[in-house]
TrEMBL record:
This protein's UniProt keywords: Isomerase, Lyase, Multifunctional enzyme
Top-level lineage group: Bacteria
One term of GO molecular function: lyase activity
UniProt name for this protein: 3-hydroxyacyl-CoA dehydrogenase
Cited InterPro entries: ClpP/crotonase-like_dom_sf, Enoyl-CoA_hyd/isom_CS, Enoyl-CoA_hydra/iso
Record-stated family: Belongs to the enoyl-CoA hydratase/isomerase family.
């Protein structure tokens, strides 16, 4: 983790290979960097970026089941939203799960043309646990937010831009493009935090019922997609702050469920097998 400046632009760079996961050390580093930026009168805007091949590509799932260490990710994202200096997420590679939730806490988002963005938690029997179900439908159309969260598949930068999920697609180096964006917006007040905005749109009750029925049918007994849709509905139709609490409750309930534990076991087992040295260069049977 480093904090540097270029003139009056601060640059926070996360360097936590291989995927810059939001470990406790990363969360603490970002928290401290935001404090320094907000105290520095010479800084007028800030950029959050990552070293290596990717932006934050997920939460640190190895911390699941362990006592939480402050700052937890939901609190960190609230802090990002409350920054007194405009904050830009500069995305390359993947912004997935907790990584996209961090980007949603920033005031602006810019990404490379090859970037992928998504909330794939349902693939592990989970839902977003740091505000994704609340903030995303306040930034993009609710139906698109539902598709991203319950489908678990990332979208391209082009689709993200079309949806309004990112503000710009970088033409070349994303860091340089983010600095150029910071120069343009540094004189303006920070935009309203997503948590304080109204939903992008408000489907009626019949539309919600049809959507939930379709997701339930497609889920084939998986709990996470259905609970994700129900959580989004609560976030869109009710108070945003209360919805954050409900999201966290549902996340913890799913995290502790046998279904999610089984899916996570499969995920880690497949990753472990893929890393076995004796299988290097071995192709699957036709």
């Amino acid at each position: 983790m480093s904090l540097t400046t270029e003139n009056d632009i601060a640059i926070i760079t996360i360097d936590h290979p291989p995927i810059n996961a939001t470990s406790h050390a990363v969360r603490l580093g970002i928290w401290d960097a935001i404090d320094q930026i907000n105290r520095d009168d010479a800084v007028r805007a800030a950029i959050l970026t990552c070293a290596g091949s990717t932006f934050i590509a997920g939460a640190d799932v190895t911390e699941f089941g362990k006592p939480p260490l402050d700052p937890i990710l939901p609190d960190l994202i609230l802090k990002l939203e409350q920054s007194t200096k405009p904050l830009i997420a500069a995305i390359h590679g993947n912004a997935l799960g907790g990584g996209l939730e961090v980007a949603l806490g920033c005031h602006y988002r810019i990404a490379t043309a090859t970037a992928k963005l998504g909330l794939p938690e349902v693939n592990l029997g989970l839902i977003p646990g740091a505000g994704g179900t609340v903030r995303l439908p306040r930034l993009i159309a609710v139906e698109n937010a539902i598709a991203i969260i319950t489908g678990g598949k990332p979208v391209t930068a082009t689709t993200a831009h079309d949806y309004g999920l990112i503000d710009e697609i970088a033409d070349g180096d994303v860091r340089a493009a983010a600095i150029a964006l910071a120069e343009r917006i540094k004189s303006y007040p920070c935009p309203t935090a997503l948590i304080d905005r109204a939903p992008a749109n408000a489907p009626d009750a019949d539309a919600w019922d049809a959507t939930l029925a379709g997701i339930s049918k497609k889920a084939r007994g998986q709990d996470a997609p259905v609970i994700a849709a129900q959580t989004i509905r609560a976030a869109v139709t009710g108070d945003a702050k209360a919805a954050l609490g409900l999201e966290r409750e549902n996340f913890v309930r799913l995290r502790d469920s046998d279904q999610s534990k089984a899916l996570r076991h499969i995920f880690f087992a497949e990753r472990s097998v893929a890393k076995l040295p004796e299988l290097a260069g071995v192709a699957p049977r036709p």
